């Protein structure tokens, strides 16, 4: 029924008047055509004015209930999409309010649903602008040293002028998504077990071992690593295709001429380390030997740890075209390890910094640490 200049109540009143008199008189009196009165009668039937008012009220109430039901269903759908457990920080709540507004909720209703004051919706965070230079420096350092965690990166940031606490560094490190993948945990040996010939000063105990790798063409690379257990300094990494006992003696002789002879040499029971040539040279040089027990590589834990860092931070990241290139790259990494890379067991000093510190502050020797 098209819209008329009469309301529904007026139409019903005219119909009742036409019932008392006649359709023609009612039409003439109210200036309406007779077919219109007959159409009204067909539409309203026997309803009176009170029934029409009641019907109109019910229609309005029905429309209001439909609207409330639709809004409730929309709220339920929005709440299902929102993870309420993670709505802790105001920034997370602001993001969810924006999502709810995109789904069709008003800003006022979205704020009430999520529990955020509308005054905080327009707040602009100042912390991201403050953290942006630090995160950019973190990303650059992480790209340069992909196997370093946030602790070592914090030392490098301090060298660049960014003084950060451990907690803030860790927060920004996680925020930037720069977490280093965890390695598979290994079985640990009880730390209470006695360790033979524990070093108490620099040049007290040297440890040496071999690390193997291959070039792009499949040629074997054999690396002899020699470290000072006390200062963690890598004294030498000799790279070749094959290293026999004579070459081991040559490398050790060169190191002794530069650094002086250590008190003990620690190694495993490999054929290169227990050969007659090495044992004779060690005996003539007045150096003691500290060989691992068979099947116990953890007794040479300092050098094994260094070999793991060499593989993780250099060998696994580089692609060598030849042994000569491998020697150059590994020697550059050795210098970086000694002079640039902070060491966690040395209070995040480099081995050279720790060595210089020990020269000015010599430790008090503990005679009880040397054990057979």
UniProtKB/TrEMBL annotation:
PANTHER family: BLR2054 PROTEIN, LOW CALCIUM RESPONSE LOCUS PROTEIN T. GO terms for biological process: DNA integration; DNA transposition. InterPro entries: Homeodomain-like_sf, HTH-like_dom, Integrase_cat-core, RNaseH-like_sf, RNaseH_sf, Transpos_IS3, Transposase_8. It comes from the Bacteria. One of its GO terms (molecular function) is transposase activity. It comes from Hydrogenophaga crocea. This is IS3 family transposase. PROSITE patterns: INTEGRASE. Residues 195-359 form the Integrase catalytic domain.
